[in-house]
Write a structure and sequence with these properties.
alpha/beta, 9 helices, globular
């Protein structure tokens, strides 16, 4: 099994002494959306990622906001921009901004002024089960949140969408009204409530040509991680979006809560084994490079 070149579409780095990360701060509990995160609650720097990915031909990485305290969001972006300037990695940055904030325009402008920033993520996973929810309420139904989402286009920013399937029908209607905002669905849609609701919600998003999906984070749904179920879910999402609108991502170190880097990504390689060489290259590297506008030279 040959591993293709990788532009990792979803990576987190953190320094616990530099910024505040409430979700990585004790006490830890087993009943949250991630389970206990004690195993990853330590510094994770660029050399740590490159060591875990040493068996792969990593051509680039996209850093996605790592859950720093909201007041530290711009400081996180500045730290990552410094890494980019010094090392060329991360290749692109997806920053955090609260889209419902009254000063959302100023926040978006500040992030967009940093050259490596490509998009924004504001996690909106709301679930009636308190063990599943990330937020106290479903902010995606709020007028202020809709207004903030619409402002992304003004600043040339994409949006990383991390939600649950029950939220997808309403979100699809909002996203359809804004074809100038590229949207990237995180973690294959996080279908925690069963196949039917997940497939129906993701199909609504897949109808929209400016929406793509990241194939990662299957451990949020399947615990313990089951390779057969991961391959089935991977292929189902890929079939909905097609190989031009899907990106393989590690979600490391968070996905290490569910398995090792090589074991997880090799499952993805196996799931894509029957694709053409061109489609595999797109899935593992080319699509992230194109959709995040990274400008990497990916010649073989």
């Amino acid at each position: 099994m040959t591993r293709p070149a990788l532009v990792d579409a979803h990576v987190h780095l953190w320094q616990l002494s530099r910024l505040r990360y409430p979700w990585l701060t004790p006490p830890f509990a087993d009943d949250g959306p991630n389970g206990s995160v004690a195993a990853i609650a330590r510094d994770y720097a660029l050399p740590d990622y490159l060591a875990e990915a040493s068996g792969w031909d990593v051509r680039g990485i996209v850093h996605v906001d790592a859950g720093a305290h909201p007041d530290d969001a711009l400081a996180e972006t500045d730290w990552l921009q410094g890494l980019h300037d010094a090392h060329g990695l991360p290749s692109g940055i997806v920053a955090f901004a609260d889209l419902s904030a009254p000063d959302v325009d100023a926040r978006l402008a500040a992030h967009a002024a940093r050259p490596a920033v490509r998009g924004i993520r504001h996690i909106v996973n709301w679930h009636p089960d308190p063990r599943r929810t990330y937020t106290a309420r479903d902010m995606t139904v709020d007028t202020d949140w809709h207004r903030g989402f619409a402002r992304l286009a003004t600043h040339g920013l994409s949006f990383d969408l991390q939600c649950y399937p029950a939220q997808m029908p309403a979100l699809a209607r909002l996203i359809e009204r804004h074809p100038d905002i590229p949207v990237f669905v995180n973690h294959a849609g996080m279908g925690v409530d069963g196949e039917a609701e997940w497939r129906a919600g993701l199909a609504l998003l897949a109808r929209l040509p400016h929406v793509a999906v990241k194939l990662s984070g299957f451990g949020f749904v399947f615990r313990p991680l089951d390779a057969v179920r991961v391959r089935d879910r991977f292929r189902a999402a890929l079939d909905l979006f097609g190989p031009a609108r899907a990106m393989v991502a590690s979600d490391f170190p968070t996905d290490r809560l569910f398995g090792g880097f090589d074991a997880i990504l090799d499952t993805y390689v196996e799931a894509a084994a029957d694709l053409t060489d061109a489609d595999r290259r797109a899935l593992f590297a080319g699509n992230a490079n194109r959709l995040y506008r990274l400008g990497l030279a990916l010649s073989e």
